Amino acid sequence: MLEKLIIQKTLRVPASTGTAGDGSGVARQLDAALLDVGFAASRDLLDHLTALAPGPAMDLAATVVSAVRELVGDHVRHNPYFIAFPEGVPDTIEFWAERLRAAVLTGGGTATDEQLRDAVRTGGVNLLDLPGYGTYQHTWADMLAVHDELIAGARDRVTLLRLGDTVDVEAERLYLALAGSTTPLGEADLAILGELASACADAAQPDEIPVRENRAVLNGVRLALGRPLVGVDSTTDVLRLACHVSGGDVSLATVTRFRSFRRPERRVLLAALDQVVAASPAKLGDIARYAERWKRLGERLHPHEYEQWPHAGEVFAVARGERKVRNLAGRAESAIQAGAVGSAASVLSSAPGLLLRSADRLLRLAPRAERAAVVEAVTGAFGSASARVLCSLREHVGNRLSPASARMYASRSRSGWVGPDRRPPLPADLVAELSALLDAEIGARLPVWERPLLVDPEVLDVALPLSGKASEGGFAVLPRGSRATVSGELLRFFMYWRQDSRRTDYDLSVQLLDDDFQAAGQVSWTNYRHDGVVHSGDLTEAANGATEFIDVPLSIAGRYVVPQVNIYAGESFDEVAESMFGYQSRSPEQQGAPFDARTVRSRSQMRGKGRIALPVVFAKTEQGWQAVWLHLYLRGWPSFNRVEENTFTTAHRVRALMERRYLTMSYLVDRWRERTEVTLWDGSPPDEPVTFIGIHAPDGLPAGSEVYTLDRLAELIPA
């Protein structure tokens, strides 16, 4: 349903066009139901519901409750292995011994320690085969019966839902925002864009689609509807489109198995290729990068059957090596290898984005006599490059005054690896010069506000959303490198998964690191307790879904708390039917079931490549504990991954991310301070309409205010 999608993405409830009447009773029920899951309806939303007839009001209320429950992970049953968790969790070895006794004594009686040792020595003992190990021994209702109701706390989360326009208006607004985004979207948002593109095919269309992956998604819908393609100006645009409609990776990070294309589709794709190459033959230089994929695509498109498009045939001739075409990157690399770094910079000047992404290497390699020419070429490209590229370069330059202790690499699929930083630092005067010029260029492109700018201090530490690939879908999920204050004295992590077609065993674990990023302990299925940290028990299959929890008191001695999810066996994160990670914040006196939506601070999907997920790290700072988002996946082993085996690699990645200085929203706010009134929000409603920037929108903003929250922060980065 579009209504549910819009609510989850924007926290705006589309207004109903149902019959008017008295829905006051439904409004009261909705208000109570929302509070149970940590949400509240704005006054406008409650008034709207009250003015509807009971039938339409109930339909709208049911949609709202269903949407927000899914958003925070309350749509499934979170049942721990140990029924009274966090109480009643046994010592790990004692628990295994008890399970072993049950296995030895299947006929009854008493097993001696010698009998247990004999059973182990035979080599026939498998934890998964021990009676009752890894499978629920109680129902969800049984678990609830041994827990009291949650004791409400003053710090329990309450997230506001606002009233929006009708569903058609809200869908079109969201569609235009996603399609016209100046930054790449993540997988979840690309899926949303595809749904909206179908629903909004006859609505207003974006004037410009800056991100090529978005063009591929939109053109996939247009291809299916038999409509002309839009924005195709490179050969790679056609390749992305073919990958998308084949169910593959539109980012081209992974190889796609192309489907068979209908004759009308082949004509559209080949005509698009022909037009691109006819207009600019130099764009054949892009073919070599994906030559093998072009060969496979040619097998599906049969270009030899369509002599009316000869330029399309040239694409596949280049892919097969029958024709040689040098591209910009190849010409620049040849110049670098010949020692002519200045010439390489000159060659790349016709592709500003590529030049700026190569700026660090060019500046490092340039001999003193050519450095001025390289600097001139780099700075001369600022005016032609996108603001996203400029912001990326500004962040990069800010980290180049000294070598990093470990250099982290993160792919578009969120795979992360580290290596030594052998790059010499850039000169301080050069860093200062580039930074000042970048600040001026970025600041000049930012929107000019007609209203006063009101900023929630909580948003200042959110990393600029320069790419949706550095995040996950979910609730209150921040981009990689963002920091969020952690309140309360107890953290509770939860991990849920539901397997698709084969037995799948995920393991929630926590690694503790000291001030020097050295191992200080761990809690997992092999060690249920450490320094007050408690595991809820190991579940080894999830045909109907399974949840594991870990409680972490924030009085622990460690400096860094690193939750991770290890795939022990079975389906990967992008194969399971569903998987999620989240954390709750509670006070020690709060009782209740292990999962309560009111205490959920964040819930993210797990859909990356790799066998080990590192969603977030919690760090103890001078200001208190903070959540620092990682969104990384480690390759790991095909099976049997355990926290003990990746201590070193995890610690290195955490250290590299913690020491990196990310460009955050405070950077943009500082640019705005130079030319407009900026006020930090203290919780009081303003007296006049404002432009509000924050994590979530508060209630009581004056009519006419413009609101930018998590779902719209990318809109603040100009083209």
Integer-rounded radius of gyration: 28 Å
Strand content: 15-25%
State the major sheet. Answer: 7 strands, antiparallel
Count of alpha/pi helices:
23
What is the count of β-strands?
A: 22
Looking at the structure, what is the overall shape?
A: globular
Describe the structure.
The mean pLDDT is 93. This protein starts with a helix and ends in an 11-residue tail after the last strand. The protein is of the alpha+beta class. Helix 2 runs parallel beside helix 4.
What's this model, at a glance?
This protein is of the alpha+beta class and 719 residues long. The chain has 23 helices and 22 strands.
Characteristic terms for this protein:
719 residues, alpha+beta, 7-stranded antiparallel beta sheet, 6-stranded antiparallel beta sheet, 22 strands, 17% strand, TerD family protein
Topology:
Elements: H1 2-10, E1 12-15, H2 24-35, E2 39-41, H3 43-50, H4 54-72, H5 92-104, H6 113-121, H7 140-145, E3 159-166, H8 167-179, H9 187-199, H10 212-225, H11 235-245, H12 263-279, H13 291-301, H14 310-319, H15 328-337, H16 341-348, H17 352-357, H18 359-365, H19 368-380, H20 387-397, E4 407-410, E5 416-419, H21 428-445, E6 453-455, E7 474-475, E8 483-485, E9 490-498, E10 505-513, E11 519-523, E12 529-530, E13 533-535, E14 546-553, E15 560-569, E16 578-586, E17 600-605, E18 612-621, E19 624-634, H22 647-659, H23 665-673, E20 678-680, E21 691-693, E22 706-708
Parallel strand pairs: 1-3, 2-3, 6-20, 6-21, 21-22
Antiparallel strand pairs: 4-5, 7-17, 8-19, 9-14, 9-16, 10-11, 10-15, 12-13, 13-14, 15-18, 16-17, 18-19
Helix pairs in contact: 1-4, 1-8, 2-3, 2-4, 8-9, 9-10, 10-11, 12-14, 13-14, 15-16, 16-19, 20-21
